[in-house]
# Entry
Amino acid sequence: MKLAFSTLGVPGLPVPDVLALAAEHGYHGVELRAHPEEPVRPGLSPAERADTAAQFRSAGIEPLCVAGYARVAAPGDDAAVLGELRELLRLAHDLGAPFVRVFPGGEGGGEEADAIAARRLGTAAEDASALGVRILLETHDSHRTGADAIRVLGPVGHRQVGALWDVMHTWLGGEQPAQTYAALAPQLGYVQVKDIASAEDTTPLPLGAGGLPLTECVEVLSRGGWDGWLCWEYEKRWYEQAAPLPGLLAAGRDHLVRLLGEAA
# Structure
């Protein structure tokens, strides 16, 4: 499996500095938080996009995903959500990133939210196919488990629409790693790993220092023969008191490599 980290852990850091961290600490890729306050965001000019892509190529680091904030199950008009999603797809294409992340964002997560999300993702799938980018629905908010996500992804049934497994949210939703993997395996794009102390305290911790079932997750993936990406999403942006990510990257990589070795 390849290893990446999210720029959510280094908010606002310029791309050259992010790439230097990845190269120095042995990460193969970077998940790019696509938000107006970040260097990589919708609205970049063609020249800025080309320059960013060139920086990744020069560093030998892969742009794993454009992590956007489109909420595909949210109530309201489809046009605004689809417009946001299409802009994220174009950005990912221009950067050479294979994935775009979207959130569910439904109200209550019931049948109506499922139907809204499936309809929008099915529509956007054709744009994704034309651009060679895959849309990934993250296990999050209204659809935090694999069982929740597959209710949307099953009806879509398109190869360019899949799942992003956030191990914290499935755990908070009461789902065991084996259950999540069984639900999402056919459509799994990649996995976000992280660690926290408890359901009551979700402040990010160094990998292995908290209570999330990372060992079980890696074992399940390895037994299933899955060989995609593990991406460390350290939520420094939302927790100012958390330790800075750069000083944790080396030990985080070592922890993941150790888990992979033990699971092999």
The chain has a mean pLDDT of 97. Residues 111-131 form the longest helix (21 residues).
